[in-house]
Design a protein that fits this description.
Number of helices: 18
Strand order of the largest sheet: 4-1-5
Number of strands: 5
Shape: globular
Largest sheet: 3 strands, antiparallel
Strand content: 5-15%
Helix content: 55-70%
Order of helices and strands: HHHHHHHHHHHHEEEEHHHHEHH
Radius of gyration: 24 Å
Length: 440
Amino acid sequence: MFSAIARIFRTPDLRRKIGFTIAIIAIYRLGSTVPAPFVSFPNVSECLAQNSGTEGLLGLVNLFSGGALLKLSIFALGVMPYITASIITQLLRAVIPHFEALHKEGQAGQAKLTQYTRYVTIALALLQSTTLVTVARTGQLFGQTGVAACNQLLTNDVWWAQLLLIITLTAGTGLIMWFAELVTEKGIGNGMSLLIFTSIAATFPGAMWAIWQTKGFEIFLLVLLVGIVVMTLVVFIEQSQRRIPVQYAKRMVGRRTYGGTNTYIPIKVNMAGVIPVIFASSLLYIPMLIAQFNIPQDGKTPPAWATWIMTYFVKGDHPIYMAVYFLLIIGFTYFYVAITFNPTEVADNMKKYGGFIPGIRAGRPTAEYLDYVLTRITLPGSLYLGLIALIPLIALATVGANQNFPFGGASILIIVGVGLETVKQIDAQLQQRHYEGLLR
């Protein structure tokens, strides 16, 4: 292992790519700590010292920004607009034929879809930055904290100062997109995924230190052991797949023979990735947002429905919240897998090139068989996602940990997934230059 790592740094091309990637990540993390214009950094620091806002409406976005959101830095929006835009573009393929046609055009079509994703990202960043500035100006960013500094986060709330702040936050999102593309082209690849990995990993030391400080060394050690077990199980499930054998008949084209090979269709247990967790979390934040803006500020009694939502759907430590969260993840897993994997299209492509599944007729029977296998394998995948997503909520209810618990939810799924993919990419590039790669 150590000799393989040494070979990486002895290879000039790989050394240059890794160094470039580290430099971009360092700039990205530096920008996450630089306050945006007209933001009162002392007041923001005082609110953060009260440990507020990390379990409220913007908790998920704050996690994906590496804590930059609640600091109101120039990279406060982080990668969330790009993630949302990518999901929207992918889902539009199912309802807009033009997007599906672009997807099938190959590299040129993918480049066009990428351009659309960039436009949607900027539009979402403009919308989210406007919302963020409005929430910060009204003093609702950290919720009802009772701290006077949380109501004075902006030093100047005139229209042109707010406009400049919105432009800065939107430009920060555009700069993050550029960083990600640079890492993909000139670094080790997976630019946006690596930036997400960096943002989430940056919160791990602070979360573990908070557990040590508040719960003691015994709980810290227990959390660490649970984290190792959970990470091992996540790696095992993420690498698990159902391989459907496929045979291709021999074809004579001129004097050459094509086909006659045996391969397989890999269907992962977790085909949806982390997307259902993001969907479910975002959907559960909507009623909280509506209720938060319907609570009177003059001390009057809030509506009964708003009180019920703020009681059971804020911190996430109530069984009702956990049950709804778990069921939403299962539903969104089936929905997203059905959108992204089309058994009919796969069966048609196999039939077109002379491929067939042994014992299954080509065409419609193949599509029905693939749909049957996909439905059965999605069930354990959805249950797995639901259980992993509940780990932070269980930790919140049992040991009073932060809802952004490091070893669970979207954070552990992204950390493990991006880590495995990055190691595979480095291994593939190392094997191009040496007979032996990083992995054995």
